[in-house]
Structures are given as structure tokens and as C-alpha cells.
Amino acid sequence: xxNLSMKTTECLNRYFRTILCLSILISWGGLAAQRPxxxxxxxxxxxxxxxxxxxPSPDGRWIIIADGSKIAKLWNQEGRMVxxxxxxxxxxxxxxxxxxxxxxLINGDRAALWDINGRHIRxxxxxxxxxxxxxxxxxxxxxxxxxxxxxxxxxx
Length: 156
Fold this sequence. Notes:
This protein has one helix at about 5-30, and strands at about 30, 35, 55, 60-65, 70-75, 80-85, 90-95, 100-105, 110-115, 120-125, 130-135, 140-145, 150-155. It is α+β, with helices and mostly antiparallel strands.
């Protein structure tokens, strides 16, 4: 695949992720008397050529959006931005705990655990590995972080 095709594919992926995010926000608003309400978060911009990722909370009350910058934003059902989470490097992936009270943000060299009020709880830094993704266990008692060459599990 040549460089132009990769950029085109990346743009299309970003476009479809944006559409998915808007669809989620529309569904949260519900349909009242057959008048759909579109809730668009104001103040969130798509940054650079980084990855764009969204994740709704398991309880359906929140959605977190990271646009490939160093900031992820937590939005409520009404479309209001509630909390900014800032990391030292661009955020690659995000996850909610099963109880929707804790957020895991992952960038290149670390993962950070935050509560939904914006309080930093803890960092996880696997030595010499670039992290790609991670998630909570179904019971919320541990997390798993994945790098290209290795996986890591941490008890909370």
C-alpha cells in the first residue's frame, strides 16, 4: 500500500469514527415525539494526524474522546465536556472500568489510571516497551496492558 493510500485510509477511518461518535451521542439524546436531538460536543477539535478514539462508559452516562493529542475529554449525556485528562505524550487508547468510575489512558510509554472527577490515581510503566492498548478485567480488579512484544497484568 503506498503512502497516499495509507493517508486516504486513515482519513476515512477518522471520518467513520467521528460518525460513530455522533451516532452514540444522538442515541443518548433519545427520540422525543419523533423529533431527534443532535448533541454535538462544542470545544473538541480533531488534532493532528494522531489516532482518534472514543469509548462510552458501561453505564451509558459518559463518553471519553481522545483525538491523538495529549488530552482526552470526558463528556456527559447532555453533550457537556466535564473533565480534561492530560498526559505527557499523545494518548493512543482509552478504557472504562466495568463500574464506569475509573478511566485508563494509554500513551507510548505508560498507562495512567484516573477517576471520572479528573483525579490521577496511578501510573503503570512497563520497562522498555511501547504500549499499544489495554483494558480492565471484567471484575475491574486488574488491568492488562499490551505492547507489540509483550503483555502485562497489574492488580489494582
